[in-house]
Amino acid sequence: AQSVSQHNHHVILSEAASLELGCNYSYGGTVNLFWYVQYPGQHLQLLLKYFSGDPLVKGIKGFEAEFIKSKFSFNLRKPSVQWSDTAEYFCAVNAREMRAQKLVFGQGTRLTINP
Amino acid sequence: GAVVSQHPSWVICKSGTSVKIECRSLDFQATTMFWYRQFPKQSLMLMATSNEGSKATYEQGVEKDKFLINHASLTLSTLTVTSAHPEDSSFYICSALSGRQGFNYGYTFGSGTRLTVV
After folding, report:
1. How far is CA A81 from the centre of its chain?
2. Is B54 on the interface with A (CB under 8 A)?
3. What is the pLDDT of residue A41?
4. What is the pLDDT of residues A102-114, one digit of tens each?
5. Disulfide check for B36: which of A37, A79, B93, B117 has CB 3.0–4.6 Å away?
6. Contact B44 A106 (CB under 8 A)
7. pLDDT at A100
8. Count of alpha carbons within 13 Å of B53, Cβ hemisphere only?
């Protein structure tokens, strides 16, 4: 079964700091990888996704993520965070070969940006 | 882009009653929808996968008789919490799968339903 692990439970940064949120998954087959953001009181929004091709994926709002297959990782990065990036971030994986197509989420990382 | 509408956004019900939550894909057909439960400050836990015209597939530990899922059309899936109890209070989120592999493939989420059982 697939599982997703996000190592950082709560990250606190100051504005303009660089961000990296860790995400590792366990599944031996081919996967699709996603990062979602959930702002307070709002629904999940897609930041970026990786299916194939260039392992460095650029998403919305200046976010990017790098798929490192050998490390089973898909870390999220942003060079300079803003106060408005304060939110909950979820990494998610689905196994491409599985008919069920279900998306498995990591535990989430709460990001707090201090002005 | 794909939009999923979920209703109601919040509901309060008495213990022992049933509550129905609707999830609609507004501008696309969704043969597969998913229902999640999210506890405060925790991740989304998949409850079941809903397939149009067939029975839902429930995750281990989810009571299928308590959480009834119906996916009667390509744009509507419903989750009914039967005989609700306070421990069923939670945030329920639906998601619809859109597109095909490699082409506009993605998951669109509803805005969620806050259920409080008193």
Report:
1. 15
2. no
3. 80
4. 889 999 999 999 9
5. B93
6. no
7. 64
8. 3
